[in-house]
Fold these 3 entries.
Entry 1:
Amino acid sequence: MSTIAANLSEIRERINRAALHAGRNPDEITLIGVSKNQPAESIREAWSAGLSHFGENRVQEWEAKRSQLAGVAGRFTIHLIGHLQSNKAARASRAFDSIDSLDDFSLAQKLNRVVADDPTASKLPVLVEVHIGGEESKTGVALEALPQLAERILEFPFLRLQGLMCIPPFAENPEDARSHFAQLRELKEKLEAHLGIPLPRLSMGMSHDFEIAISEGATEIRVGTALFGSRVIP
Ligand SMILES: *Cc1c(COP(=O)(O)O)cnc(C)c1O
């Protein structure tokens, strides 16, 4: 078995254990393999081992890798999980199945417009990235601005708001992230009540803290180094 396949099966076991421990069904949790700074070959390997969701944080990097994945790209779900500049909105909407890092009204407006302009495109799934954990974390919409941004996204006919995402500040002890994960879950529940729609996706937890995120309600976790090893492309 390759290292990636072995890592994948170990991570799946950890997901199962964490879910069962939290009284949850492991099938509710989607594993996203974060392949940023990893070669296309690693994606192929993880896909062959059964992984069906990947995350990249830059449009250009994914476009380059996609061209090396003939026969494989298009057969899994690819998420944009990094900050998106609005001048790349059109390319991102074509290259990704879901934009998981939406944090700004004008970007939402731009994405809606580029999808509207493409007659072959269907509604684009999005998550709003929330700024959780104070000054140390730099991306995401401020807590106070979340309800209004979510309301306005709902008015865009070509975007489908599906949930929330966060990247809490790095903490040596994964337990320190627990309160941030709990906060994102509570925000999601409040927002569902406020908007009157279900928000099925809660994207939180990375290599060193995904078990904590699962115990706080994550429906998808984003795992890079634990699956692929150290990032190799600078
Ligand atoms: C890099 C990255 C990850 C994965 O981090 P690891 O610690 O390698 O698991 C998850 N989410 C986002 C947004 C990232 O940029």
Entry 2:
Amino acid sequence: MECPSGLRSLSLLFLAGTAASSSVLRHRDPLPAGFVNAPYYPTPYGGWADDWSESYGKAVDLVSQMTLAEKVNITAGRCVGNTGSIPRLGFPSLCLQDGPLGVRTTDNITAFPAGITTGATFNKELIYERGVAMGEEFRGKGANFYLGPSVGALGRKPRGGRNWEGFGSDPVLQGIAGSQTIKGVQEQGVIATLKHLIGNEQELYRMYQLNVQQAYSSNIDDRTLHELYLWPFAEGVHAGVGSVMASYNAINGSAASQNSYIINGLLKDELGFQGMIMTDWLAQISGVASALAGLDMSMPGDTVGNNIPLDGYSNWMYELTRSVLNGSVPVDRLNDMATRVVATWYQLGQDKDYPPPNFSSNTADRTGPLYPGALFSPSGVVNEYVNVQADHKVVAKQVAQEAITLLKNNGSFLPLSTSSPLSVFGTDAQADPQGINSCTDKSCNRGLLGMGWGSGSANYPYLDDPISSLKRKVTNVTYYATDSFSTVPAPTSDDVAIVFVSSDSGENSYTVENNHGDRDADGLALWHGGDALIQKAAATYSNVVVVIHTVGPVTMESWIDLPSVKAVLVAHLPGQEAGDSLTEILYGDASPSGHLPYSIPVSEDDYPASVSLVATPTLSQIQDTYTEGLYVDYRHLNKAGIKPRFAFGHGLSYASFSFSNASITAATPLSAVPPARPAKPASPVAGLNATIPAAAEAYWPDNFDRIWRYLYSWLSTSEADAAYKIGVAGTQTYPYPDGYSSVQRAEGPPAGGPSGGNPALWDVAFTVSITVTNDASAKLGGKAVAQAYVQFPSDAGVDTPVIQLRDFAKTGDVVAPGESATLELTLTRKDLSVWDTVTQNWVVPAPDGRYSVWVGSASDDTPVVCYTDTLVCESGVTGPV
Ligand SMILES: *[C@@H]1O[C@H](CO)[C@@H](O)[C@H](O)[C@H]1NC(C)=O
Ligand SMILES: *[C@@H]1O[C@H](CO)[C@@H](O)[C@H](O)[C@H]1NC(C)=O
Ligand SMILES: *[C@@H]1O[C@H](CO)[C@@H](O)[C@H](O)[C@H]1NC(C)=O
Ligand SMILES: *[C@@H]1O[C@H](CO)[C@@H](O)[C@H](O)[C@H]1NC(C)=O
Ligand SMILES: *[C@@H]1O[C@H](CO)[C@@H](O)[C@H](O)[C@H]1NC(C)=O
Ligand SMILES: *[C@@H]1O[C@H](CO)[C@@H](O)[C@H](O)[C@H]1NC(C)=O
Ligand SMILES: *[C@@H]1O[C@H](CO)[C@@H](O)[C@H](O)[C@H]1NC(C)=O
Ligand SMILES: *[C@@H]1O[C@H](CO)[C@@H](O)[C@H](O)[C@H]1NC(C)=O
Ligand SMILES: *[C@@H]1O[C@H](CO)[C@@H](O)[C@H](O)[C@H]1NC(C)=O
């Protein structure tokens, strides 16, 4: 999302064009052959999952007391990310706040490491702890919603601008990390918002902009959607996420914010989602159609549907009230929308002592406009500077450190000795000299790259930069604060050069050094001449250590094999704790334990052409067709037999780990088709009054002090009466989409169930236990990661990737030389299934067949295999890739 204050929508709106009427259906270009836009109606009511029933009971009770205007009031915001309130019933305005790595646009917070960094730790417990700390900070600032985590973009496109907000280019890594984050955040009573549903894999042309440009269409086949892109959303719903955000783009030609198949069908029926779904900011393009397709909240409430920015125009609010009175939006749909919002608030316990917001996204001053969206507003205290940091820098540093991924360490060059003189190169080693928060939303790559740019960024409270940290550690440090190689005194063989380089990306709301969010200008090359800087350093020094701060894969062929390039560390996007987290690794106070959350290719040409950016601006809709199917990142490279430079999951340690003593245990017996889903209970929402209410419920109250340009849910008496007349007459009908129905389906889809889908999908089928030992001769201890990849039986009769990550585990403690630790990995029924497009269910293609479970420290280093048919494990084997 973007623009917390709504004010930034100005820049979007001045793009010109003619006014789009919210009721006009946009023309759509034909989809590529084979893609259909299937209707799915009506929106299934929420409230049929056991673990939400108490919250729905309370919510239905509250909603039953609401007027029409009150129900509508809580389904959209008014200029900022704040919903309307219901003063009469004591229901507060809810505050929605970015972003995935910390509370955005405020102070006295922690700037945590980014999602991609978090994924690289492969440490489930630590990911959860980061979530706990972020949840405490959002709550402390009084934000009801944490607008994260991001699990879409999944990372299909290596150049995609926002991949770094998520956890890596694999659905299981995204799913586990997303769920751990959700649990940590929501245990603090904060509503997490899983985003962006779905197919939001590039930034360029992501938005509908008036009638000038349509958002691109991500054309995704059913199986690929289920096995890759929807997977982490299913895991997040299973973890109990309260809210979901729809993406800007279209899927199969239909905008994500009004795609009935995605929202009604997949999210609310198949995944049994009980919470509420909102738009991304300004993404709503219709009123009635989006309500029917299952949207529950429009954010920030105003839209780009009018030419004049922020003039109080909305597709919902007073228009939604009108649509209910005139019968176009059935009352039960509005009841369901309001109940979903209120039930989510109860589910997270926000009815009990939840603090109101004590910060402003709009200004850093203590006082400011109370209604920042209005041109004229009374002033008051808007910032209380509540310090929410507690000791969160400890977990932030731990994540930054455990993410650091050692790619190369020739001759065990690292760790360094403090007696070696250091020469440090590259502006990325130091904090931005113009100020650590000098670029709005980090929309520049100047100085250390600690996070990407856009709404996924946060202000630094301070920045521990690497050069300061190195100077604290080592006495003889010379820093060359430039990205072009300097003339240096002739080094001795003892001298060490550390070269800092970076690659940045972000949200399409800003262009940075010609990169429009995505890395469209720089591609996978290092920025600021980083390759040349490394080459020149390597020509002068015999000992070069490269440190890379990056949003994703970068190519390294021009220097990786140079003999003087002794060691390479990817420090990802470390956030505020960039310095000591790194120094301690460089000097051996801690051993690196990060692993790559994506592959690093030899060349960008190694990827399928279909994952390139679709970059041709056209007046029609750009078609982005996922012809590579399941074959992204390592799934593609393995299938095509292309060796990457560094494989997905790769990451070295100073310890010397070996795996042994593996065993596999069968738990739940498998059948081809899972046990039938539980019956779908009736929803209490069905008990709410679904008759068109009296027009008087929508009348403006007398003498209301209206704030100019704010959105309200009331209508004038004459407008309300006119709409009501149409509604009760029932003669003028809305042009409902093909396939529309208002009758609730009695049965859900076979794969469906409460909170994520058929619960049997999460039955544990097998557990694998493995012992990891640090060799007694190792000089140092470290934390070890085991990754489990499944290979489907060769006679399964269905095309599957060679191997797919299904679980991972990291040792809780450092394993000292000569010591061992045991790790456990689990495989669920879903992990061993494929999505069957005919039966629309998860099917185990060969229940008694030989699934090979490959275990190791990287996707190309799996020296242990366990077989599900014989329950035998072998060690010292060569993996399949
Ligand atoms: C898109 O089209 C494909 C191919 O017909 C279909 O399998 C898939 O379910 C469609 N997705 C949506 C969201 O309509
Ligand atoms: C809607 O919310 C606004 C802002 O909180 C409030 O002023 C107004 O009274 C609410 N309207 C209704 C119908 O409760
Ligand atoms: C701001 O948050 C703090 C801590 O949660 C709380 O004590 C305070 O009352 C809040 N301020 C306002 C105006 O709600
Ligand atoms: C009801 O109102 C909505 C919102 O203004 C409008 O889009 C729709 O066409 C109206 N329906 C009828 C039948 O007039
Ligand atoms: C943090 O809050 C204090 C007041 O508690 C304030 O003086 C300080 O300026 C705030 N920090 C920043 C970076 O704004
Ligand atoms: C620092 O290292 C440089 C390069 O090796 C060397 O020339 C210089 O004498 C050293 N300075 C000190 C104070 O040790
Ligand atoms: C590793 O270092 C040795 C010398 O210690 C050198 O011969 C070899 O080329 C280096 N290998 C790489 C890949 O840099
Ligand atoms: C072998 O693994 C089991 C768990 O399956 C564990 O209890 C045992 O300690 C391990 N043995 C060794 C020698 O590490
Ligand atoms: C349902 O609402 C309609 C319209 O407001 C009202 O006339 C009717 O009495 C209500 N029914 C019940 C059972 O409350």
Entry 3:
Amino acid sequence: MGKIAIIFSSLPFLLCTILMVAQAEDPYLYFDWKVTYGTLSPLGVPQQVILINGQFPGPNLNTTTNNNIVVNVFNQLDEPLLFTWAGIQQRKNSWQDGTPGTMCPIQPGTNYTYRFQVKDQIGSYYYYPTTGFLKAAGGYGGLRVNSRLLIPVPYADPEDDYTVLIGDWYKQSHKALRKTLDQGKSIGRPDGVLINGKQGKVGDEKEEPLFTMKPGKTYKYRICNVGLKNSLNFRIQGHKMKLVELEGSHTVQNEYDSLDVHLGQCFGVLVTANQDPKDYYMVASVRFTKYHLQATGKIRYTNGKGPASNALPEAPTGWVWSLNQFRSFRWNLTASAARPNPQGSFHYGQINITRTVKLVTTANTVDGKLRYAVNGVSHIDTETPLKLAEYYEAADKVFKYDNIGDDPPANVDQLDKITLAPIVLNFKYRDFIEVIFENHEKSVQTFHLAGYSFFPVAIEVGTWTPEKRKNYNLLDAVSKYNIQVYPKSWAAILLTFDNVGMWNVRNECMERAYLGQQLYISVPTPERVLRDEYNIPDNAVLCGIVKDMPKPRPYTP
Ligand SMILES: *[C@@H]1O[C@H](CO)[C@@H](O)[C@H](O)[C@H]1NC(C)=O
Ligand SMILES: *[C@@H]1O[C@H](CO)[C@@H](O)[C@H](O)[C@H]1NC(C)=O
Ligand SMILES: *[C@@H]1O[C@H](CO)[C@@H](O)[C@H](O)[C@H]1NC(C)=O
Ligand SMILES: *[C@@H]1O[C@H](CO)[C@@H](O)[C@H](O)[C@H]1NC(C)=O
């Protein structure tokens, strides 16, 4: 008996060792990106957009687990630029995470080469620009990580794999919107919704289809909300969507008529062409708003005869529906993830919590200007990126660690007075931490944590107390990188902070992040060794106070 146990428990370890040896030969994928402005009319009026190699949205990055990705970005805009690869964990490598707290921006007229590995990940992701509110002009695109051939995937190979980027959209330029924000005002409601850069028009028979399907075949659609402000509902006329993947994890395969896709979230679904051969509309429409905005796009059967019906399926109403849908998402415990061992072999529910951090979001004005805050502090970016200040051992000149408390006052009125400062929490390497997001506002908020995926163990109405842990899902919460928090509700996530680096936590509502509702989590290297973190890349752009400082001694193996 004892022997068998040993054999079984060492099997995953052996497999890991084999894969780590193979890692030395992991293939490289090279991309050159020319980033420019262009003029397009996604809502019918010409406006400035961002093109990557002439494309809007940007090109899809089609990668496979453990590939090394090399993207040489030529910034031909008139302002600084950074891209983030949302959900890509950048293990030991926050140097490439592309947020203003981790990297100096790529100056106009220059280029920078991102180098990172999509290590031990599978699934659906996307990238976007993080500087200067540029996302309002596009610059985003899909990023998929395919499973390696030797890893079983819990569904048959689809006929094709389609990326569907949905998001709300403004007619104003990113500069005009930024000016409004800099003046301390909200940018208000968007003007429309786009699906892959197009709004679509119901009943326009000349409109070209976005996708085609062969009758009887099954397709994978990866749906991501790349918008600025709104949760969207996504649905396809006459077709069910079988959910197979959610933000990098295989799920229990339930079927849905429609999905609420909150800001920054990605779903992988299977759709079978099993209806009458004709055209069908896919619809993305705003949720939880008094106004109605939508985009449509056509799917055409290759043997199709006839246009799509103009009767679009209705979106659900209210956010309770959305909460119930969230609760139906379950991790498939027996499916393999990026490695052959089952996802469920990581028993997150049995690990003791070492620290609990509650993050309460508020909004108020400071000197007459709108600001959004976390635990009473509104984040400001610093000229010297936080990560570089820390690496050069000059953190004390740039920011203070733990300048917000773990346990803000229960009475949110006490958080009314907002102060401005860079927010940096200091987490100990490998601690298992519980983060509570508490939303006292009337709108749904969505939060992203860079560098990790986490277990969203509960979303509930009201305020959090330690007794709520009784109701956590400690078995099959889907490991993911984004979490929504409904109005007057809270959400709890659990994870091990085992990735050294400086990691951004942000509200995916870009207006709120821009006006301060974000922070950084520093997981410092305990020993400055390469086992835990890579050295700063040779080509790193330097700026602020570290520009002329001597380079720190490199990490040792
Ligand atoms: C994406 O990559 C996979 C694996 O290399 C390949 O089979 C597939 O054809 C690629 N798809 C596209 C659209 O390039
Ligand atoms: C800029 O691009 C050139 C190739 O055109 C490359 O050799 C160089 O390394 C790039 N610079 C950076 C900082 O990545
Ligand atoms: C979970 O994944 C396994 C493959 O390991 C598959 O056979 C099974 O059908 C999946 N279960 C559900 C409920 O989707
Ligand atoms: C968790 O904490 C309990 C109570 O303090 C202790 O008995 C148990 O051994 C701990 N478990 C682990 C895995 O450390």
